[in-house]
Amino acid sequence: MTGVRVLVGTRKGAFTLTSDGARKDWKIDGPHFGGWEVYHLNGSPADPDRLWAAPSTGWFGQTIHRSDDGGKTWTPVGNDFAYQSPTSDHLFYDGAPRPWEFKRIWHLEPTRDDPDTVYAGGEDAALYRSSDGGATWTELTALREHPSGPSWQPGAGGLCLHTIILDPVHSGRIYVAISAAGAFRSDDGGASWLPINKGLRSSEIPDPDAETGHCVHHITQHPSRPDTLFMQKHWDVLRSDDAGGQWHEVSGNLPSDFGFPIAVHAHEPETIYVVPITSDSLHYPPEGKLRVYRSRTGGNEWEPLTRGLPQQDCYVNIYRDAMAVDTLDECGVYFGTTGGQVYHSADGGDTWAAIVHDLPAVLSVEVQVLP
Amino acid sequence: MTSDSGVSVIRVVLPAHLKTLARVTGELRIELAGPVTRATLLDALEARFPMLLGTVRDRHTGRRRAFVRFYACEEDLSHESPDAPLPPAVVAGREPFIILGAMAGG
To answer: Residue A4, Cβ neighbours under 10 Å: how many?
Structure first.
């Protein structure tokens, strides 16, 4: 192990932050794609020098770039994210039918064993896969064609497919989450999909227990316990121990159970992290105190982690894809804020420090451990 | 300008972000055989710089992206038919065809 590389997507470009295993001194590199919104960039587990980035702008649309040298140089690859079967309407915010229209890519998920294969989650909700290094993209149309599709409605950020989990044990199992359609699972590589939203309750929709329509913000999984999932929903933190068959709320003593990211410790599958946000109308931390909450019991019992984080006058938000953990012996935890700070803890969350203070608003954070 | 062989050389100005994407600086010179329209010019531009596919117009419908504009000869040609001939001064190479991002937001 030579160190870690943090991949940061922001409103105005991408940055890489690198350090050795001590994670004390950092080198900041960027901006890459200056001026472009980079909703996500991610690295291949099979080849850490293979990176993917999804810069877009409202003017010029979506591009995808690939790096084969750890982010030093980037090459534009394919960006044809067509809907590859007839599209129906979905519902718009006002409940009126709205044609499916591609807007951007929210998340890139490389596979564990093939550097040329990567999944992409889009808005309006669709799942794509490239198996040729990003040159071409194939839509896994069965998801968008799910019978519930015409009833899907966008969350505040759009009808976005923002979470993709490729199950490390069950071949062909994929989880995705869509705001505000909910969570879905495929057991056959994307050929068919099952809504997995039982146990979610959302008072914002007419039927709080509906099969779909829930605003799932993020889902995470520990690779050693693939049937256990943790979810940060619009409101509520939940867990499932049967691959999404049933969810149970584990918000416990959180000061607010609204929030966006959720992460699980690299070596402790029952240790999870969230960042409580005041409410859906007040997108900043309760009391102006930036606190990560950690549960060592898989939820319900939470402790605030505050050392090194601002405990007054802090009114930033932390987006759904802006928290990550590394796999070093002492698990590192990272998150980025809309104020442009990237914080990290090299001791599992006990103490925190800012790696960088003044980036553009952070949209996503991923971390790689470098060989 | 148009050569004896009927090939026109069109001067094209890209917005800064697309120059970066295409890895070019300054004006482009795009050679075109046959009719010079916005559609044929963009076809030739995208053939030479495939990374621009989808950034100026929808790659399937050909429709101009909402916040992209086309100027030439101090005129806004954005709402002209993509199949309309471009102004003679553009075809002759005296004026550039300007692609730019509309002023909208920050």
So the answer is: 24
φ/ψ of A343, rounded to 5, equals: -100, 150
| Residue carrying structure tokens 């929210």 | A106
Q: Is B105 within 8 Å of A35 when comparing Cβ atoms?
A: no
Percentage of residues of chain A with pLDDT beyond 90: 95
Low-confidence stretches of chain B (pLDDT < 50) are 106
Q: pLDDT class for A14, splitting at 50, 70, 90?
A: very high
CB B84 within 8 A of CB B90: no
Peptide bond into A31 cis (omega under 30): yes
Q: Do B67 and A59 touch (CB under 8 A)?
A: yes
**What are chain A's domains?**
72-334 (2.130.10.10)
Please give the span between the terminal C-alpha atoms of chain A, in angstroms, as a whole number.
4
Annotated domain spans of chain B: 7-101
Interfacial B residues in 60-79 facing A (CB < 8 Å): 60, 65, 67-68
- ipTM score for this prediction: 0.92
Neighbouring CB atoms inside 10 A of B100's CB total 17
Strand A3-10 relative to strand A174-179: parallel, antiparallel, unpaired? unpaired
The answer to whether B65 contacts A59, with C-beta atoms less than 8 Å apart, is yes
Residue of B16, B65, B105 with shortest CB distance to A61: B65
Q: What's the CATH fold of domain B7-101? A: Ubiquitin-like (UB roll) (3.10.20)
CB contact under 8 A, A59 and B68: yes
Q: A78: nearest CA in chain B?
A: B51
Q: Which candidate, A306, A311, A351, A358, places its Cα nearest to that of A332?
A: A351
Chain A residues whose CB is inside 8 A of the B56 CB are 60
Which candidate from B21, B65, B104 shows the least CB-CB separation from A63? B21
Which H or E element spans position B101? strand B97-101
Please count the residues of chain A: 371
> Rounded CA gap, A51 and A65, in Å?
8
Per-residue confidence at A80, pLDDT binned at 50, 70, 90?
very high
Task: Give the torsion sign (CA, A121, A81, A57, A115).
Answer: positive
| pTM, entire model | 0.96
DSSP one-letter string for A206-243 = SSTT-SS---EEEEEE-TT-TT-EEEEESB-EEEESST
Would you call B55 an interface residue with chain A, using a CB distance cutoff of 8 Å?
yes
Name the minimum distance, in Å, from the CA of A59 to any CA of chain B.
Answer: 5
